[in-house]
Design goal:
Elements (H helix, E strand, L loop, with lengths): L1 H20 L1 H7 L5 H8 L3 H9 L1 H19 L2 H16 L7 H29 L2 H30 L13 H9 L9 H5 L3 H5 L3 H30 L5 H20 L1 H7 L2 H21 L4 H28 L5 H29 L2 H31 L1
Length: 393
């Protein structure tokens, strides 16, 4: 009876953590369908309405290192529960807030809550599972995140039929998840004196591989948002203007990512992390070139699926690598910096590719993005070759 109860508790905690993992992708996606409603009903400019959806990324990225330190200092349960509560209350405030400055303030507070959610759920999963089981759980996490990228915008769109305020109600999910998290058992952590450590100096000492992981995370996220931002424009050039049709392309990316994520354990049993990341960048190179050079709609549809397959490999690989490379006492800080790198890539992507698109063309933008993916892949290949040569010698 006790064994059954323990197993139920573990599976229940896993369900909470996987659902919590979808909340960061929900953070902006759930509001995307009501951007136009904000503009028409409240008179917001396109930029002002867009900031409501994206400004949380700034506070998330800036708060990340402090959040990581708190997780290392206190463990995951209490910071994660507090973050989920802040996520739910600050996010749900949009149900009643009318003032634009106050709405932006709540979104910034919401971003801090989202930083706790990302770091807390990821570290707890890394702490709970090791070896092949960790690979399996991280594959499930990747699948959950990608499915959230499909489901939450649909929920937001359905609620948006009521009013532009209504989708903010979805964020209240953080409140019951906070209560469930608070009831989870604490995981053993290093002693406080060890957990405090020496900040990033202790984290990176003798671990240059972590910097490489963060660089890859930033590049991967920048490429992803290049697709999300410029694919609709490229499809318009190919004669696809229906929002439903564009949504099908975006959904195919998430579906492919989810499918590969569910099979990640099998892939990982055959290929090491560097090989999987090399495959991801190769897929992205081919996909981005296909989107940029395509003369018909069918090829970009296949290409977007290939891009999603690469994401399905890269997301769990980079997360597991972070957990493996970081000392347990600094795993919170390492994971928080992974989030900072990802949201940094998200922020920089339109700044990098937007002016390029304006100065040249959308076609050229995808070709340059493919070149970036290919150059990164070749760098990974060179690193892999040197490592194997040293091992051979």
């Amino acid at each position: 009876m006790t064994v059954v109860s323990a197993r139920a508790g573990r599976s229940g905690a896993l369900g909470v953590l996987l659902l919590g993992s979808t909340l960061t992708v929900m953070a902006g996606a759930v509001l995307a369908p009501v951007i136009e409603l904000m503009r028409t009903e409240r008179g917001f400019s396109a930029t002002a309405a867009g900031l409501v959806v994206t400004v949380h990324g700034v506070s998330l990225a800036l708060a990340g290192p402090a959040v990581g330190w708190l997780v290392d200092r206190w463990g995951t349960r209490r910071p994660l529960a507090a973050g989920l509560l802040l996520y739910g209350l600050a996010g749900g405030a949009g149900l009643v807030v009318e003032s634009y400055p106050l709405l932006i303030a709540t979104r910034l507070a919401f971003g801090i809550g989202a930083a706790f959610v990302f770091t807390g759920t990821t570290v707890e999963l890394l702490d709970r599972y090791g070896g092949p089981l960790r690979d399996k759980v991280m594959g499930w996490r990747s699948a959950a995140i990608s499915l959230g990228g499909v489901v939450w915008p649909l929920v937001g769109g359905a609620l948006g039929a009521i009013s532009w305020h209504a989708p903010f109600a979805v964020y209240l999910l953080g409140v019951p998840l906070a209560a469930l998290t608070w009831r989870m058992a604490d995981r053993p952590r290093p002693e406080p004196a060890v957990r405090a450590g020496r900040g990033p100096l202790a984290l990176f000492a003798g671990r240059p591989g972590l910097l490489a992981v963060y660089a890859l995370q930033g590049i991967a996220t920048a490429l992803l948002y290049a697709v999300l931002v410029f694919l609709p424009v490229r499809l318009g050039e190919l004669g696809v203007t229906s929002t439903v049709a564009v949504a099908v392309f975006t959904a195919s990316l998430s579906v492919a990512m989810s499918g590969v994520g569910l099979g990640y354990t099998r892939l990982r049993s055959r290929v090491d992390h560097s090989g999987l990341l090399l495959a991801a960048f190769a897929l992205w190179t081919v996909a981005l070139l296909a989107i940029g050079l395509a003369g018909a709609v069918a090829l970009p549809l296949v290409a977007v699926g290939l891009f999603g397959a690469g994401m399905g490999v890269a997301v769990p690989a980079l997360t597991v690598l972070t957990g493996d490379l970081a000392p347990t006492s600094h795993r919170g800080q390492a994971t928080a910096l992974l989030a900072t790198a990802g949201f940094g890539g998200q922020f920089l992507s339109p700044l990098l590719f937007g002016p390029l698109s304006s100065a040249t063309s959308t076609r050229a933008t995808f070709v340059v993005a493919a070149a970036l993916a290919g150059a990164t892949g070749l760098t990974l290949l060179g690193y892999r070759w040197r490592r194997e040569r040293v091992a051979y010698l």
